[in-house]
Amino acid sequence: MKKRTKLIYALMTGCMLIATSGCEKEEVRQYELLPEQDEPEMDITSSGTISVNFDNASGPSGNEGSLKLVDNDYNSKFLINPYRENLFMQLGFPGGIAVSAYVLASANDAQDRDPKNWQLVGSNDMENWTVLDSKTDYMFASRLQKVRFDIENANQYRYYRLNVSAIRGGTGLFQMAEWRLIYDPNRKTD
Ligand SMILES: [Ca+2]
Prior knowledge:
- By secondary structure, the chain is mainly beta.
- It has helices at about 1-15, 15-20; strands spanning about 40-45, 50, 80, 85-95, 100-105, 115-125, 130-135, 145-150, 155-165, 175, 180-185.
- It has two domains: about 1-30, no CATH class; about 40-185, Jelly Rolls (Sandwich).
- Strands 2-4-9-6-7 form a five-stranded antiparallel β-sheet, with no helix packed on it. It has a four-stranded antiparallel β-sheet with strand order 1-11-5-8, with no helix packed on it.
- The relative contact order is 0.23.
- The protein binds calcium ion.
- This is PKD domain-containing protein.
């Protein structure tokens, strides 16, 4: 009990006391430092606000509205009819963050509604956009397929957009089950 009291007292009063009280050997404790570990990457989608320039006829909260893009349910989808070639989906964040990967998921049916050509772009003012990734003639291999795309990006952006410039079936409807953004805290940013 006496030993414990002395230790607490030493901790409270700091080095001065340790220096003057003749630090007893048995009170010295050593701790092994744990090896440095990478922090796990984070899905930051839920921290963002989704918006689109063309929404489902039932609105963003509709059964196939734009909120279904980011509801983390791969069985729900966003659908527009008709598809427009300047369609974009945007995730806006309260502050800049450097996205290191994104995930797209094809919907449950009708392959011709899949995106085929797209760009992921980033911006801090919604006027100047930097292209972070481009895909041309991409083909989702199956329905409800979740595909991850890693990108080389060290810049922090408040706004990310997915510009979908073509769909697999040409003109017609567009649909996508999910769009998610990934942040890797271990990656160095500019
Ligand atoms: Ca969904």
